[in-house]
Design goal:
97 residues, alpha+beta, 4 strands, four-stranded mixed beta sheet, 3 helices, globular
């Protein structure tokens, strides 16, 4: 699976507005991403690091795999990969488009 697949999943569940900003963040090398790919794209996360703090920008799990711990697995993986003590989740309202 590719970053484009992740961006399509973000667009599907979070809207094209959020897909656009995630793509620009990744294109400009501000954001990093991680994908869970088991028998197809399950979910992914887009994040950035600011002053030794991980900021989770987008977390998305396909609706067919929700409730199985994949969101938690994504966050735990980012914690392990970056070894930083502080993680923040950027949030917004669902009608913020």
């Amino acid at each position: 699976m590719s970053v484009e697949d992740l961006l399509n999943l973000i667009g599907k569940y979070l809207g094209e507005y959020n897909r656009y900003f995630a793509s620009k963040c990744i294109e400009r090398n501000v954001c990093k991403f991680y994908i869970i790919d088991e028998r197809g794209l399950i979910g992914g996360i887009v994040y950035y690091i600011l002053d030794n703090i991980v900021v989770l920008y987008y977390i998305v799990v396909d609706e067919n795999y929700r409730g199985r711990g994949y969101g938690r697995k994504l966050v735990e993986t980012i914690e392990k990969l970056n070894g930083l003590d502080k993680i923040y989740i950027a949030t917004t309202r669902s009608d913020n488009t």
